[in-house]
Design goal:
Layout: H1 10-25, H2 34-56, E1 62-64, E2 70-72, H3 74-93, H4 97-103, H5 113-121
Antiparallel strand pairs: 1-2
Helix pairs in contact: 1-2, 2-3
């Protein structure tokens, strides 16, 4: 299992471990993809961090500027941009349901105890 780049945030490293485990299990993890995977993980980390910051600030979608004007919370813009970039990269890896159908990613089969019993009887 490849180790995450040191420059990834803690949230991004969490995503790295999750995704590398899945990609490894599917046997589609390649060293050629690690830089792109790191970019994906970093965007997910940025999204999570922006969401946490908004939560700490009271989940305000609109904030008041120093001159009294209302504006969208800048953290919302950061989260939306990171989500958009992560989604674009995710499609390249087959991390979305529609992307998996396009690239033919194998689907993990769940064990079916009933099917196992029926196969034994045959």
């Amino acid at each position: 299992m490849p180790t995450p780049p040191e420059w990834l945030t803690d949230y991004a490293k969490d995503e790295w471990y999750t995704q590398t485990a899945e990609l490894e299990a599917l046997r589609i993890l390649s060293t050629m993809d690690l830089s792109m995977l790191a970019m994906y993980c970093q965007q997910v980390g940025i999204f999570r961090q922006a969401q946490e910051e908004m939560k700490r600030e009271g989940n305000e979608l609109v904030v008041t500027t120093p001159n009294g004007a209302l504006q969208p919370n800048p953290l919302l813009g950061i989260a939306n941009k990171a989500a958009d970039l992560a989604l674009k990269i995710a499609g390249q890896f087959g991390f979305t349901p529609s992307a998996r159908t396009r690239i033919g990613t194998p689907v993990k089969e769940e064990e079916d105890p009933l099917a196992e019993l029926l196969n034994r009887r045959s």
